[in-house]
Amino acid sequence: MRDVPAVLPTADQPLVYLHETAPDPGHSIEISKGLIWLRLPLPFVLNHVNCWLLEDGDGWTIIDTGSDTEQGRAIWQDVISTRLGGKLVLRLVCTHGHPDHVGLAGWLCEMLDIRLHMTYSEWLAPQLWREQGLKPMAEAEKRGFMRNGISERGVTKMMQAREASPFRNHPLPMSVVTLRNGDHFAMGGRSWEVLVNGGHAEEHASFYCAKDKILIAGDQILSKISPVVGVFTSQPLSNPLKDYLASLKRLAKLPADTLVLPSHGLPFYGLHARIGQLEAHHQKRLDELLTFMDTPKTGADLAKQLFANAVANGQLMMAMAETLAHANWLVAEGKAQRIETKQTVTFART
Prior knowledge:
About 35% of the residues lie in helices and about 25% in strands. It has helices at about 70-80, 100, 105-110, 120-130, 135-145, 150-165, 240-250, 270-290, 300-305, 310, 315-330, and strands at about 15, 30, 35-40, 50-55, 60-65, 90-95, 115-120, 175-180, 185, 190-195, 205-210, 215-220, 260, 270, 295-300, 335-340, 345-350. The strands form 3 sheets. A 7-stranded mixed β-sheet has the order 1-14-13-12-11-10-9. Strands 2-3-4-5-6-7-8 form a 7-stranded mixed β-sheet. Strands 15-17-16 form a 3-stranded antiparallel β-sheet. The longest helix is centred in the C-terminal third of the chain and has 22 residues, at about 270-290. About 40% of the residues are buried.
């Protein structure tokens, strides 16, 4: 029997939150015996990430780290020195390779002399992103943005803004313990099944404890926002939305009373309802996008219609990435066509 009582959602209240408020940045809440929720601040609009501490008898497992900031380092030093009951950290696990999840992974592994556990693609991804600052890759990326309808001046401005972003990683360890889909992994006195899914990241790992019906979801299922599902210049013909929607189908097979621990927002019950909301959200985006394809349009033009507020707030890069993900899905389904020349890529409905 699990020690967290399930509260089943209703039609009037499709999501039920385990706690109505989150811990303050740097503070923690015990979710279940040996399972601690720690919230780390982030230096951008999405201002927090949830990390998890699991007590392993004579030590601890950490899941995710927050981004590489002085504040984040100070919080971890305080947690390690004062809140772990004198026990050592045995391992670090990361759900995926985005900077708010692995930003301090290398630093923690160096300081604590522990191993990093994550999927292979996600371990490689941050190392590739570090290479993007090199001139050949930067030029290739610039050409990719321009082919999708962003002016040279706009691309320069966008890439300068990215360079100034506080979204940073400490270099990852040069070795990794690889997690694979279907692995069973012991953490915190529980057995967890590794669930690897795509869409938001290439090989995002979530962790499900069948005995206690707890899902450490990472970014794959969030309570109030949709994780970014985007196409970037390194994989212009990819179809991450197909991968993401398929992941929702797989996760919907978990029990209705699963407790979901997301990387952003509050822990909640209502997995099936939330999956339905996310599927409806993407279907609405697809329907809207198809109406905008009455004439051939670039990804940038479509993004300005589909995500007008985000573009107005300086988020054209992410808006276009999400737009292209939906456009590539429509092309794959035969509902739109991709029209490609050496200079431009446009989309039109069939």
